[in-house]
Amino acid sequence: MEKDVFCKIIDGEIPSYRIYEDDDVIAILDISQVTKGHTLVISKKHYENFLATPKDVMHKVMDVAQRIGQAQITTLNAKGVNILTNCYPEAGQTVMHFHVHVIPRYENNDGFILTMKENDGDLNLPSICESIRREMK
Ligand code: 5GP
Question: Which atom of ligand 1 is nearest to the CA of 93?
Answer without folding.
Answer: 3
